[in-house]
Amino acid sequence: MTSRIENAIESMKSDLVAAIKGSGDVTKAIVDTVSSTLTTTLKDTGKVGAAAMGAIGDVTSGAIRGASEAGAHLGDAAKGIVLGVLRGSKQAGTVALDAVGQTASVVIRDTAAVGGDLGHAATGLMVGAIQGAKELGLSAEDAASAAANGALRAAGKVGTAAVTTVRKAVTQSISGVKVVLKEPFERK
């Protein structure tokens, strides 16, 4: 990560903590902050493809850590992050489903790192992916599947208990959408 992007992420994290504490609406504060930071980061740096996915990961990581620092519910935070990423990446022309999978993976990895509830985070990811897909005219099933698979990929790196918790959360029917998982998710 370049120092310019690092500074933007740190600034976003500080803004996010203040917005969450100031408004009390965790999801809205995160959606707005993540979307604007991501749009600016992707447009200013001209990042596309793998570089864009790296920027999405950096913004997502800063957001989950900021939400944790602010004492926010990480399920609400995860929903806001995936919505913010979808809206921000759309503005910058990034492939949405890849962005959802990357976001889910980073949310689960960083939720585990801060000691958050992986089940809440996974459920929030699913709700956000479905809502965001509907807003953008994408397939809710495809977005939910991308989120579930990204979440399970990261959970597999955390451990067996994480996979069990995340799998239980992502295989629930959410807003009438049932997820199709791609196997395997063994720990690597």
Q: How do the helices and strands line up, and which of them pair or pack?
A:
Elements lengths: L2 H21 L2 H20 L3 H21 L4 H19 L3 H18 L4 H19 L3 H19 L1 H11 L18
Helix pairs in contact: 1-2, 1-3, 2-3, 2-4, 3-4, 3-5, 4-5, 4-6, 5-6, 5-7, 6-7, 6-8, 7-8
Explained architecture:
By secondary structure, this protein is mainly alpha-helical. It has one domain (about 5-170). The protein is about 80% helix and about 0% strand. It is built from 8 helices and no strands. Helix 1 runs antiparallel to helix 2 (about 25-45), helix 2 runs antiparallel to helix 3 (about 50-70) and helix 4 (about 75-90) runs antiparallel to helix 5.
Could you provide a short overview of the structure?
With 188 residues, the chain is mainly alpha-helical. It has helices spanning 3-23, 26-45, 49-69, 74-92, 96-113, 118-136, 140-158, 160-170.
Basic shape: globular
Ends: how far apart? 25 Å
DSSP strand (E) fraction? under 5%
How many whole angstroms does the radius of gyration measure? 15 Å
